[in-house]
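Final report, closing paragraph on structural work. Over the funding period we assembled a curated collection of sequence-structure pairs, and we close with a single example.
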Amino acid sequence: MSKIISIINAKVFDGENVIDTNTVTVKEGKILNIGGPVPAGAEVINAKGCTLMPALIDAHSHPNMEFLKQDMHFGVTTTYQMQGYFSEAQIVELKENTGIAESLKCFFAVTAPSGHPSELLPPAVLTKQKEMLVKAGITVKKDVSTPQEAIDVVNERVQQGADYIKIMVEEGTVFGHPGTPDITDEIIEATCTEAHRFGKMAVAHAMTIKAFERSIKGGIDGLMHIFIDQPHTPEIITTIANSGVFVCPTIVAGASTIGDSDSREFVKDPRVSSKLSQDWIDSLGKHIATYPKGKTEYLLKAVKALHDAGVDILAGSDASQPAVGGMTHGASLHHELQLLVKAGLTPVEALRTATSIPARRFGLYERGRIVNGARADLLLVEGDPTINIADTLSIKKVWRQGVEFNLD
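Its predicted structure, as stored:
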């Protein structure tokens, strides 16, 4: 007989709103009942003083298997990989191992030859990456110069099992490398069209207003950063809102790129630092700092304007390696939620950006909500993050598919 768990006396945020119940029952990895009686024989968890909510979704991350376990310590049970690679065996493990976050994947993004992010990587790192892929018997197309080459890459990604397609629209100015080779408008359009032919979304790395405009014109479905090169204008907000795209602003990454992130203060919180290695603690004390002329206040105002215009906002950390300063897996998604509230979203609106909204926009309808029949990916925190967003860090329990993760 499958174990049944009933969580009682908690405040419940269902991914959209606080609901009028204090009991949620889980069985066989799914939510069995909300608000009903506790079944006979159930394990009862008294969550008085706590809030139960859907486990968090990081809509922009660059994880490996080790980092996916770190995500779990921070209540992140699903991530959207936005550049990287998983082997076939790892893809199986992502589905079956409830001790790590599950990751959707795009594999390597479509980019120009010598295009982003190669301008940021030392030649030795690029060589090592190629050698590792060759050793693993993996051949990967990603550099494209023509629309047909872009179509070929999309077909390869679909065969590899990509959940969506990513495009790099980046000419390097914000990273201190102006003139970095970039893809053409024709390539953007061809990539989006081919992705849509397979029923896949296309999302774009874009960090300038021009890149936003080019991506939207080409048929993109989502924008994976916020522009940092200038303040927003009414025109760009209208263009974005009218297009129907979503925006994953990664404010924490933009602020690090500008060089005025408050990640140094964020990591002082013992709820953060106690769960991180020294490498990650040191990383949060650094910034990318390649675009000092930018202003984080512009990012916050742009995000608020987009939200007010009805644009779906998704929370993402853009965490990758410790060498990239300002972001880390798991913790930085909580930092992003705090920045979204600082931008002017209410705590409840911010919580939606890491639960129901990214689930809906990526078609994961069994996640991001506490509803009958949904997957039991749950987060129990002490306090009330619907009032004080920082309470998301006061983690008591995490479940993926109804299996409790060992936080010790």
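The mean pLDDT is 95. The longest strand covers residues 56-61. We thank the funder for supporting this effort.
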